[in-house]
Structure formats: structure tokens, C-alpha cells
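Checklist before submission:
- one chain only
- standard amino acids only
- sequence pasted in full

Submission:
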Amino acid sequence: MRIARTALGFGLALVAAPALGESWVTVYDDDPIWAAVDQDSIRRGDDGLVYFRSDGPDKADRAVDCPRRQVYTLKLYVMDGIDYPDWRSQGRGVVEGSAGEAELQYVCTHD
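Returned file contents:
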């Protein structure tokens, strides 16, 4: 009985997962590279950065500095997840014509 309840609970959790507000929009598609942004996750922080969840070659929580065209990775969702506690010192410039630029353009105009 306990196994049946556990299985039922797990199944219900999987069904309920999409209800968490994920709404993915493909912002870049140049086979084999693609990028998508969860439009429901986009928010502007008090620090002026725009925060969002991205998917593509890797699923991650990211932030961008729109005027400076810098992107920061806060967390990668590979294996057990990789957090970057000093992410503010690890920003990188966005390359013109890249998936990163497409993400930046989308989130900076939809926050």
C-alpha cells in the first residue's frame, strides 16, 4: 500500500509540474544550437539586472545586464545542479549573433 501511495504521489507531482508557470519561448534556433527562455521567470531585480531561466544546450538560471551586454550564470541544472555563489564576478560579454544575444534581446524587452 505504501508503494502505491508513493507512486501515486510521484505521478501527481509530475502532472502538477507544468502548473508552476513555465512558459517557454524559443528565442534562437540555428540547428543544432537553440535557446529558449521561460517568459514567466523574467523579472528585473533591485540591482537593475534581469533574471530568467533559460534552456538550450544547458538549462540554467541566468541574469543579464542589458546596457552592458553582460550575462551571468547563477545555476546550471546538470547532474545535481551547479551553483555559482560568486556569479557576479563571472559575467561575460554577449557575442553578436549568438544564442546568448537572442536571450539578452528577448529578456531585456520583456521584463
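Reviewer check: The chain has one domain: 21-109.
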